[in-house]
């Protein structure tokens, strides 16, 4: 059976003063999934653990993101996290801190039977 995309959500997260890309990425994922339930498996009579969750994170320094920490935001499902260059770094003129912004896309798939014609 093919994987069928059922839900796609978008989110933005920031770390205002710490410059922590992982914190910003986790907040972006949280922003994407907390506005509604991604437990679509229930509607199709499947266990929530059957969900295949693909996450794309965009930050200015992708190598600074802890992938396992981002995946840990999800309470169930098989999570795959992809990092790419994106987001935004805001450097401050008057202090050594920077604000980092992350963008996230969360797509939920289920292995569903193909409808017969």
Would you summarize the structure shown here?
The chain is built from two helices and five strands; from the N terminus they run βαβαβββ. The protein is α+β, with helices and mostly antiparallel strands.
Task: Give the biggest beta sheet.
Answer: 5 strands, mixed
Determine the mean pLDDT: 91
Sheet-strand content, in percent, reads 35-45%
Which regions have little confidence, pLDDT < 50, spanning 5+ residues? none
Query: DSSP helix count?
Result: 2
Q: What would you report as the Rg, rounded to the nearest angstrom?
A: 16 Å
Element-by-element helix/strand order: EHEHEEE
Which structural class best describes the helix and strand composition?
alpha+beta
The count of DSSP E runs of length 2 or more, i.e. the number of strands, is 5
Report helical residue fraction.
10-25%
Distance between the termini: 15 Å
Shape: elongated
